[in-house]
Task: structure prediction
Amino acid sequence: QVQLVESGGGLVQAGESLRFSCVPSGRTVGHYAMGWFRQGPGKEREFVAAISPFGETTYYGDSVKGRVTISRDNAKKEVYLQIHFPKPEDTAVYYCAASLGIERLAQRYMYWGQGTQVTVSS
Result:
């Protein structure tokens, strides 16, 4: 069993740097691909980014491509998501998730965190 805990949410102004962390407990996530999803108010859950188990491959959602970076430090057992120059439309609950392989589809992920709320003000 893997438990995931996200951090880095809160209230930020548009253009401020925004960085999330995902820390697992229980089994190591070193051999899992990791993904980030988000769900904005009144919206469906949306794929943001994913990274392969050793970080050699990354995927990004079309709506955020060029504005976000996913990375991981397997020695620290942490996964990160950085949003560059966040906008009000980035306001959402952000979730990290673990999967056996790098995926874009939420249903392919086995373990999920509880999410962290971010509000980007204009």
